[in-house]
Amino acid sequence: MQWDDYDAALFDLDGVLTPTAEVHMRAWERMFTDFLTSRGVSKPYTQADYFAHIDGKPRYEGVAAMLASRDIELPHGSPEDSSSEQTVCGLGNRKNELFTQVLRSEGITAYAGSLALLDHLESRGVAMAVVSSSKNAPEVLAAAGIADRFPVVVDGAVAAQRQLPGKPRPDTYTYAAEQLGVPSSRAVVLEDAISGVQAGAAGDFGLVVGVDRGAGAQALSDQGAEVVVQDLAELIGDR
């Protein structure tokens, strides 16, 4: 990896910097298992559903995609819906409550390899930003003790405020590069989700790196990752 060719690294958060994907997956499983059981749906929620319909997408889009996979129609509702309401937003809010409960009770630790790469890039003067579909990104970064490493965080709340389309569109990554003052062609996108590498491939970025945390190396490559690693420490080129 020749970091001299790039001026910025744009990181997805969940599954790339921190194992929050595991927390998200547990929260999604609990929420959808309870919901599908209450509806008498015979086909249960599985981990494959997470990667096929939810991974990397904004929360409500993930809910809608999962419901569509079971031919279930619900009103969209609004973000202010309570977690008990039978709407897309209500289910999404219930999942968020479960995620927050787990995060606060168990905490989170960044991947060792990711911390090593952050140290390496900082020493080289490479600008860094986090680009996450989750509105929980600031809380996760704080819980992991790495919030001060990122002067720019483009999360779900920023995307909504700026009316930026979410992944698989490239807009949030492009905006992050702009905020760092770096041309997108000099920025590297690092993603573990199919929708995330699609976002990188759809933009004018210097490189798209897939991090295989379960989506599959071939699937990430097929959707636009030019390099696929299992751990970010593999990207420390001069070790």
UniProtKB/TrEMBL annotation:
Pfam families in UniProt: Hydrolase
Keyword Nucleus among UniProt keywords: no
Cofactor(s) annotated in UniProt: Mg(2+)
InterPro entries linked to this entry: B-phosphoglucomutase_hydrolase, Beta-PGM-like, HAD-like_sf, HAD-SF_hydro_IA, HAD_sf, PGP-like_dom2
GO molecular function, one term: hydrolase activity
Keyword annotations of the record: Carbohydrate metabolism, Hydrolase, Isomerase, Magnesium, Metal-binding, Phosphoprotein
UniProt-listed Enzyme Commission number(s): 5.4.2.6
Catalyzed reactions: beta-D-glucose 1-phosphate = beta-D-glucose 6-phosphate
Top EC category: isomerase
Family classification: Belongs to the HAD-like hydrolase superfamily. CbbY/CbbZ/Gph/YieH family.
Protein name (database record): Beta-phosphoglucomutase
Organism ancestry: Bacteria, Bacillati, Actinomycetota, Actinomycetes, Micrococcales
